Amino acid sequence: METRTPQGVICQSCSMPMTKKEDFGTEKDGSQSKEYCHYCYQAGKFTDGGATMEQVIEKSAEAMRQMQMPENLIEQTRKYIPTLKRWKMN
Ligand SMILES: [Zn+2]
Question: Which domain holds residue 74?
Answer without folding.
Answer: 4-88
